[in-house]
Amino acid sequence: MLIQKIDKEKLNLAANTLRMLSADAVEKAQSGHPGLPMGCADIAFVLWMQFLRFCPHDPQWPNRDRFVLSAGHGSTLLYSLLHLFGYDVSLEDLKQFRQFGSKTPGHPEYGHTPGVEVTTGPLGQGFANGVGMALAERILAERFNKDGNMIIRHHIYGIVSDGDLMEGITSEAASFAGHLGLSNIIYIYDSNQISIEGNTSLTFTEDVGKRFEAYNWRVTKIDGHNHTEIAEALEAARNEKERPSLIIARTHIGKGSPNKQDKASVHGEPLGAKELELTKENIGWPKSPAFYIPDEVLHLCRSRIAELKEEYTQWQDLFKKQIKDNPNLSQTWSAFFKKEIPDDLELELLKTIKKDSIATRSASGDMMQVIAQRMPSFIGGSADLSPSTKTYIKGSPSVEKNQFSGINIHFGIREHAMGAILNGLALSGGVIPFGSTFLMFADYMRPPIRLAALMKIQVIYVFTHDSIFVGEDGPTHQPIEHLASLRAIPNLLVIRPSDATETAAAWIAALNHKDGPTALILTRQDLPVIVRSIYPSQSQLKCGAYILKDSSKPPEIILLATGSEVSIALDATLQLQGKGIQARLLSVPSFELFRSSSEEYRNSILPPGCRKRVAIEAAGKSSWYELVGLDGLIIGIDGYGASAPAKALAEHYGITSKNILSEIAKKWGM
C-alpha cells in the first residue's frame, strides 16, 4: 500500500502508536531507551508499511527483506512493529519488556524473539552484519536465479545511529560494501545529534555524507518526520543498482515529549510518569489505557499483512516451479540450506596428507579444497592473509563487484568487519562462512566472535600462527593470552589440533557444530604427523581429549598437551616410561568438547585419584588449572615472547621435552 494513498492523519496516528507503545513499555519497566523509538517512529512505519517484505507466519522465509535495528537500544520500536505487523509478539509481551524470561529483552536477541534478524546492541555490529546479509543475498542469487526467475531478491534495511557511525567497524564495513557495490543495502541514519553525554558536537563534527560518498555510497538527506520524503528516499534507494544507500534522516530524539525532546536525558531513561502524561496530552493521545492501539492502525497493519501474504504465496509457487521441480537446482538448494556433511568426508580429508611432517595450517589448506568441492555452501576468505593462512580455494574466482559466483572473499585488512560480516552471512542461511587471520589478531574480532556465540550461529574461524613459534616476527605477532581468552567465551568451540590427522577431525567437528562458532587454532611450523596405525585414531578428537599414549598400569603421572606441544610431550612421556614410570599422555585438542563428554569418560582418562598432572602448552597458563588442579604443574608462558628463531624460543621458554622432564623431577622427584 502506497503511503501517499493513506490519509495523513492515519499516518500520524500510526507513528504515534509506535511512539506511545515504546514509551509505555519503557515506563512500565522503569528501564530502557524511549528516545530513539519516539524519534524513528515515522521512518519505521513508512518502511514497514510500504517497503519491507516479510511474512509473520514464516519468519525465516528465505526471500524476506531483512530489517536490522543496528541501534539495538531502541528495541521497543522493533517489538512494537513486530506486534502490529502480526508476529508472535503479543501486547502482554510488550508489557513484559526487560523482564526475566520475556520475549522482549532490553536489546534484540536473535533466536529469542520471532522476527528479530540479529542480536544488536554493541554499536556498529548490526551495521556490519547487514553487509554480510547483503553479500549472502548476492551470492545466493547468483546460484539460484535462473531464466529471469528471481528466487532470491531482497534488500537489507537498517536503522543506524550516531553511535553506530562513530564506531570504527562501520567504516570498515561501509568501505567493503561500497567496494563491492552492494546496492541491496538501504540504511537510514537516525541523525538526532544526541548521545549519552550530550550533543554529538562534543565529539562528532565530520561530514558523514561526504565520508559515505567517498566509500561509494549513494547519500540522501531528508526530514525524518516527513512521510513523503521518507517514502521517496526509500523508493529511490530501492531503485539504485550500483551502490549501497545511506539516507541521512534529521530526526528529533524523544519526539513529542514537551520537556525532553532533543535532550540527552531521553536517550536512556524513562520519560517519567508526569512527562509521559504530558507527552500524551501534547500529541493528543489518550492518557489511559496504557499500550493503547487505535483500531484504524490495526486495520492498516492487517491490510499490509494481507498484501504481503499474496507476495509470499506467489513466491512459493515460483519456488516450486524453479527449484523443487528441477532436480539439479533442488539438490543444490538442499546442499546450501541443509548443510549436510558427506559421510566419507573425514576419510577424504585424510587422503590429502602426503607428508610425514606438515604445518597444520598447510594441512588445513589442502583439506579446505576438498570441503569446498563437497560442500558448496562453504564460502569465505581472509583479512588479506590467505597466502599465509592457506585459506584460498583454488580454481574458484574471487567475489568481486558484479561477480558473486566465487567462493573466495577478500575482506581486506578489516578483521573487525570480517568477523561481523561472517555473522551476517551465517544469519542469512544457506552459507557456512569461514574467515581467517593470525591468532594474534583474533583480538580485533572479539566482539563479533562473542556475538556469534551468543546467537548460536555457525561461523568457522581459521586462526594460524598460533604460538611463540611464529618466531622472528616477535612478540607483536606471538599470541600468549589468546587461547585462554577464546576459551573463556561461552559457546565458542576452540580446537587446537596436534597434527594433520587431528586437523581433519577438527574440520569435521567444526562442520558438525551448527549451533555456535568454531575457532581452529593452527601452526605456522611443520609438525610430525602422528602414525595412527600405532597411536589411537584422530577421530577421538570428538571427545575433546583422549589417551594418545597410555601407561601399562594405572598412571602415576598424566601429561596433557595441545597442538604443537603434543609431539614434544609424547617424547617426554616415552622417556618417563623408559625409566619405568607409569606415565600417560592425553592429547587435549578441545576443552569444550571434553567438558561435553560424559563424566564417566572424563574420569576414565583423567582419573581423580591421579593428582600428578602436567599441562604443556606454549601459551598462557590460566585455563589449565581446570584440568590439572592447583597442585598440578603447568609448563607454559605467562610473559611475552621475543624475536628469534623458533628453536631458540623453545629452548628459552622451556617448551622442550628436556625441560618437561626437569620440571617434573623438581616437583615430584620422578
From TrEMBL:
GO cellular component terms attached to this protein's record: cytosol
Classification via InterPro entries: THDP-binding (IPR029061), Transketo_C/PFOR_II (IPR009014), Transketolase-like_C_2 (IPR055152), Transketolase-like_Pyr-bd (IPR005475), Transketolase_bac-like (IPR005478), Transketolase_BS (IPR020826), Transketolase_CS (IPR049557), Transketolase_fam (IPR033247)
Pfam families per UniProt: Transket_pyr (PF02779), Transketolase_C_1 (PF22613), Transketolase_N (PF00456)
Cofactor requirements of the protein: Ca(2+); thiamine diphosphate; Co(2+); Mn(2+)
Domain of life: Bacteria
Binding site for substrate: 33, 267, 361, 388, 465, 473, 477, 524
Record has Calcium as a keyword: yes
Enzyme class: transferase
Chain residues that bind Mg(2+): 162, 192, 194
Site location (Important for catalytic activity): 33, 267
EC number per UniProt: 2.2.1.1
Catalytic residues (UniProt): 415
GO molecular function, one term: metal ion binding
CDD domains assigned to the protein according to its UniProt record, in alphabetical order: TPP_PYR_DXS_TK_like, TPP_TK
Binding site residues for thiamine diphosphate: 73, 121-123, 163, 192, 267, 441
Any one biological process term the GO annotation gives: pentose-phosphate shunt
NCBIfam families: tktlase_bact (TIGR00232)
Family: Belongs to the transketolase family.
Subunit comment: Homodimer.
Name listed for the protein in its UniProt record: Transketolase
